[in-house]
Amino acid sequence: MASRILSRVLTLNNFPKQHSKLQTFSNLFSPGHRALSTSTKCFSLEQERPKFPGSKAKWTEKLEFVHSDLYDGIPVYRVMDRSGQVLQADQDPQLPEEMVVKMYKSMTLLNTMDKILYESQRQGRISFYMTNYGEEGTHIGSAAALDPADLVYGQYREAGILMWRGFPLDSFMNQCYGNELDLGKGRQMPVHYGTKELNFVTISSPLGTQLPQAVGAAYAYKRAQNGLCVACYFGEGAASEGDAHAAFNFSATLECPIIFFCRNNGYAISTPTNEQYRGDGIAGRGPAYGISSIRVDGNDVLAVYNVMKAARDTAVRENRPVLVEAMTYRIGHHSTSDDSSAYRSVDEVRFWDSTDHPISRLRNYMALRGWWDEAKEGEWKKQSKTNIMESFARAEKKLKPDWRLLFTDVYEKMTPGLKDQMREMEEHVSKYKDHYPVQNYAKTTTPLE
Ligand SMILES: Cc1ncc(C[n+]2csc(CCOP(=O)(O)OP(=O)(O)O)c2C)c(N)n1
Ligand SMILES: [Mg+2]
């Protein structure tokens, strides 16, 4: 009894207090030698762990630095090999045929849309584009494991998530054309999609801004107890921003239901990963923040699915952040403003395109089960290309949004200053209308406020 009380006191109080309490309790309860020796034992055990409030560590008398090459690195989880064979049967998520075919169709539709929009930029029909080549597995595997109501914050190379959630081809095209049907009213550069209906927050160009914002949203979800989580996507390059640190630390300390999904595609524009960091990638940082972390083969869509499913479970059930680092490769140029042949070899790109592509791996998996063949492939290719070309033509024909919409939505109601600016611009445009292609712009009939 006395020793039980003693050890409780020892765990509840800090050292100097324990010391004095120890003596008091031994005087009160000690039946002699036995009690005293137990209390002495507790006392020395307690001495073994430091009491600093900032760590959970033990004492050591060995002068030793912790080196970054202490271990081999976090392993890369996979389900399939390159030929689509499942390596360990119990890791196959056994998704129904219909779902796997939908995954494949989303990945290939994205790939075909990328080809057409990339070419259209080259022809001067849209101003800018970013392809998703080689990263389709990270998008579709992760999106398929989320609840459609989970909130997604993207960086800019995650169009596949929208594809999976059913964002219509027309909406992609309208955004890239910045026409009058664009949900963003033509205010953003191409690929800066956003849709409230599909719970996808509008992309913003400055790197890393989405990370702390996503944590804030996850904290709000926790308070609302809505059983949902937030998925925040970013590139390994963006993880070098200070915002990433702030986000990781806030999410861990505030215990938020968020999945940080890093696409490690080997480059931040022209900077390869070996110049970006010295540690074990991005997943290696997680444990230091107190975040459960995992690394996955991003070109294995089933592995990404399994990891995201498990991450979502942890985030939602335990209100905890999870960090997923999906290893993949950016096969395309960074954007239409980049020529990657200036900083990487054609052979390197060819390897990923021909040997380790997420689309061919999933096709092999489906073919092994008799779910896909050449005839189906040919038919789907033709049909998807036609759908994209038709949608593309529709978007191109549309007018640009009313230019006066530049002034709206900055504030809930237009300020007097903004109203003045809009009026001045109206006067200017009407005075010099011969110099502006005003006929290409829609005219809003509803009053602007
Ligand atoms: C704050 C900020 N700094 C720099 C840039 C310019 N920039 C745009 S994309 C990019 C590289 C990002 O690389 P990564 O996060 O790995 O994404 P990836 O393009 O590889 O998908 C840079 C430096 C920016 N948009 N914002
Ligand atoms: Mg990158």
From TrEMBL:
Q: Which CDD domains match?
A: TPP_E1_PDC_ADC_BCADC (cd02000)
Lineage top rank: taxon: Eukaryota
User: What cofactor does this protein call for?
Assistant: thiamine diphosphate
Which residues does the UniProt record annotate as the domain Dehydrogenase E1 component? 104-401
Q: Keyword Mitochondrion: yes or no?
A: yes
Q: GO biological process: any one?
A: branched-chain amino acid catabolic process
**Record has NAD as a keyword:** no
**What is this enzyme's class at the first EC digit?**
oxidoreductase
Q: Which InterPro entries match?
A: Alpha-ketoacid_DH_E1_comp, DH_E1
GO MF terms held by the record: branched-chain 2-oxo acid dehydrogenase activity; metal ion binding
Question: What EC number(s) is this enzyme filed under?
Answer: 1.2.4.4
Q: Which UniProt keywords apply?
A: Metal-binding, Mitochondrion, Oxidoreductase, Potassium, Thiamine pyrophosphate, Transit peptide
Localized where? Mitochondrion matrix
Any GO CC annotation of this UniProt entry: mitochondrial matrix
Q: Which chemical reaction does it catalyze?
A: N(6)-[(R)-lipoyl]-L-lysyl-[protein] + 3-methyl-2-oxobutanoate + H(+) = N(6)-[(R)-S(8)-2-methylpropanoyldihydrolipoyl]-L-lysyl-[protein] + CO2
Record family assignment:
Belongs to the BCKDHA family.
Q: What is this protein for, i.e. what is its function?
A: The branched-chain alpha-keto dehydrogenase complex catalyzes the overall conversion of alpha-keto acids to acyl-CoA and CO(2). It contains multiple copies of three enzymatic components: branched-chain alpha-keto acid decarboxylase (E1), lipoamide acyltransferase (E2) and lipoamide dehydrogenase (E3).
- Name the chain's protein: 2-oxoisovalerate dehydrogenase subunit alpha
